[in-house]
Amino acid sequence: QVQLVESGGGLVQAGGSLRLSCAASGNIFSINAMGWYRQAPGKQRELVATITRAASTNYADSVKGRFTISRDNAKNTQYLQMNSLKPEDTAVYYCNAEIKYLDQTMGIIVRGFWGQGTQVTVSS
What we know:
Blueprint: E1 3-7, E2 10-13, E3 18-25, E4 28-39, E5 46-51, E6 57-59, E7 67-72, E8 77-82, E9 91-103, E10 107-114, E11 118-123
Parallel strand pairs: 2-11
Antiparallel strand pairs: 1-3, 3-8, 4-5, 4-9, 5-6, 7-8, 9-10, 9-11
């Protein structure tokens, strides 16, 4: 069974840094696009950053210049380095990945997976 496991969230003061990790495991052949999303209380989930297998990146305007997304294809892992954090960055952060994997019943499948979410809280 394929799963994404996140780590690295926590409480930090404004101006501080955190690094999130998201590791994919299971019968994985390859991972296409990966990304990070976040959801603040009372708000919809929003895109933070994405990265293709070839490492082309895209960022929400609100995090450009402060956050950096990266990936290690050999480890099936993506990262989000968050610097100069602001209170408005407070949210649950979710990783996402489009994964090609072997399902024991259905054969080779390509579909998106989500991590369980990790809380990031930035105090003022």
